[in-house]
Specification:
By secondary structure, the protein is mainly beta. The protein is 13% helix and 43% strand.
Length: 394
């Protein structure tokens, strides 16, 4: 524990502004009771009690993600749902209603933006018609168990390179969607479900509807239709809603001392420090949280997260938050995550319910990044989560 007088700050200002060789006269004119004392304590040097653990959070939803994930890696499986908007010109509607429309091609075009695993390894999946209604908002792992889809595989000829993933979509489902639009004036549908097979050994992230920059990048189906002796036309059915879900478990690689933050399947951590040494109603001047990364079993794709989100936990058993509106960010510096969490700590000292800080990856809904953090029981004390607190009395 260290005490730092704020008079030092005033002295520095006086030095720079007034004279090169100041005396202590000004300092001595200030009574001791009027001097502000800043106290520093930290969990390493002052032996603040701490504890930490990680857990699975099945409630995490993926509907607002900027990309959808597809494939298999380690023990994780990522599947995708997407539905398309079917807009047709009058000429195509008329030809279909007169039974003179021929569907010559139907190809789904997707844009990869994220990769995990060797690009030379296979990526294989089946494509299924979705029979039940669904929506991306709140869609999570549990939602998938209620999804009704057909067993028939409607996809073939999967092709993938650095800029495009494409596959042929069975013309029967495209014809069904066209009929729904032409006969019932209904342009929407329940869409398709992309499910990776056991042959898949890597994962791709596909640009989602929420994040396209221009229409060329928007997930879509290219449909070529013909009315014999009249016209050949190319139509595009644009994706208007999509979501992915990641299922699975962590591999058996981690010890009891580790905190595993895994995106996709969403493992999070809670780390707790004893704040009882800070007097009630103190002013929290600064609080830094520092975490040490174990890179041995961490996992990165072509995009690596550099941020963690920290929130205040009210109940570590129920995993509820004290203030869901308040969070802060830890930035990555080499093998450390560091950041200022003063606002969260001030809430604790102001009487908010506190049973720890929740940690999760900033990009947990859009990658399969994994960071392994040294926990509170790590044998080397310097590698344990560390909190440094500066406070002063009101």
């Amino acid at each position: 524990m260290k005490y730092i007088s704020l008079i030092a700050l005033f002295t520095l200002v006086f030095i720079s502004a007034c004279q090169e060789d100041p005396t202590s006269v000004g300092k001595n004119l200030i009574p001791d009771e009027d001097k502000i004392q800043v106290t520093e304590i930290n969990s390493l040097d002052d032996s603040l009690a701490q504890s930490s653990f990680y857990y699975y959070d099945r409630s995490v939803s993926y509907g607002s993600s900027i990309r959808t994930l597809l494939g298999r890696y380690e023990n994780m499986e990522a599947s995708v749902l997407m539905s398309f908007l079917v807009n047709l010109p009058d000429s195509v509607i008329s030809a279909f209603q007169n039974d003179s429309l021929i569907i010559k091609e139907s190809t789904v075009l997707l844009t990869p933006t994220y990769y995990l695993g060797d690009k030379n390894l296979p990526l294989d999946f089946t494509v299924h018609k979705i029979n039940s209604t669904w929506g991306p908002t709140g869609f999570n792992k549990d939602s998938l168990s209620f999804l009704d889809y057909s067993n028939q595989n409607l996809g073939s000829n999967i092709q993938i390179d650095d800029s495009t993933l494409s596959f042929n979509l069975d013309q029967s489902i495209v014809s069904e969607w066209i009929a729904k639009r032409a006969n019932d004036n209904e342009p929407t549908n329940n869409g398709i479900y992309l499910k990776p097979t056991l042959a898949s050994q890597r994962v791709v992230g596909l640009l989602a509807f929420t994040n396209f920059v221009n229409e060329d990048e928007l997930p879509k189906i290219r449909v070529v239709v013909e009315k014999p002796n009249k016209f050949v036309d190319t139509l595009f059915f644009s994706d208007f809603t999509d979501v992915h879900v990641v299922e699975g478990q962590l591999p058996n690689l981690f010890g009891n001392d580790d905190l595993v933050l895994q995106a996709g399947i969403a493992t999070r951590a809670i780390t707790w420090f004893d704040f009882s040494k800070i007097p009630v109603n103190s002013i929290i001047n600064s609080v830094e949280l520092e975490l040490t990364v174990d890179s041995t079993n961490s996992l990165f794709g072509n995009l690596v997260s550099d941020s963690l989100l920290v929130r205040l936990v009210a109940d570590s058993t129920a995993k509820t938050l004290s203030d869901s509106t308040l969070q802060t960010i830890l930035g990555r510096e080499g093998n450390k995550f560091k950041g200022e969490i003063r606002q969260l700590a001030q809430r604790i000292n102001d009487g908010y319910a506190y049973q720890g800080f929740r940690l999760n990856l900033f990009d947990e809904d859009r990658t399969l990044t994994r960071f392994v953090i040294k926990g509170s029981n790590t044998p080397i004390e310097a590698n344990r989560p560390k909190i440094t607190i500066y406070y002063s009395n009101r």
